[in-house]
Amino acid sequence: MCRSRFRRFRAEAASAIASTRLAFTGRRLDTGEIMARKLVSSGSTFETDIGYSRAVVDGDWVFVSGTTGFDYATMTISVDVVTQCRQAMRNVASALAQADASIADIVRVRYILPRREDFEPCWPVLKEYLGEVRPAATMIEAGLSDPRMKVEIEVTARRRK
């Protein structure tokens, strides 16, 4: 009995691994269609200096990098956490629009703040943008790369057909 369960588990695991490999080749698992990978840029110098994209579109999925409250047009950032949160959400919305997606497509969000006390003041802004969407969410307290940054927001979206 135990051996048959183990064999069945091994077969299921091998199948899952094969499916995962197919997913990373850029093929849709359901149709086998080759999907183009698209890179989205905000124009921030950070992207070229560090070597990343504001967002990556892979099939129906959109992965938006951690996004801060910098105004990328002027490369300025407010000292106020709520203003930074609002600008970060604008930046996220812009990246999603470039990826043919929208805030309504967000399924997962991560908030990263150096000070957890700064999270609650951001709630009204987050509710304004995500109150109807209600994605899965996590808040993490961690240092950010620039001491002026008070909030960073990372999202995953799935474009609707």
Report how far apart the termini are: 45 Å
User: Main sheet: which strands, in order across?
Assistant: 1-2-3-6-4-5
CATH topology name of the largest domain: 60s Ribosomal Protein L30, Chain: A
Please state the overall shape, judged from the principal axes of the Cα atoms. Answer: globular
Computed over alpha carbons, the radius of gyration is 19 Å
Structural class by sheet pairing and helices: alpha+beta
**SSE succession:** HEHEEHEHEE
Q: For this structure, what is the CATH homologous superfamily of the largest domain?
A: RutC-like
Provide the β-strand percentage band: 15-25%
Let me know the largest β-sheet: 6 strands, mixed
How many domains, in number, for the residues?
Answer: 2
Assembly annotation: single chain
Low-confidence stretches: 13-25
What is the tally of beta strands?
Answer: 6
Helical residues, percent: 25-40%
CATH class descriptor of the largest domain: Alpha Beta
Mean pLDDT reading: 85
CATH A-level architecture of the largest domain? 2-Layer Sandwich
Number of helices: 4
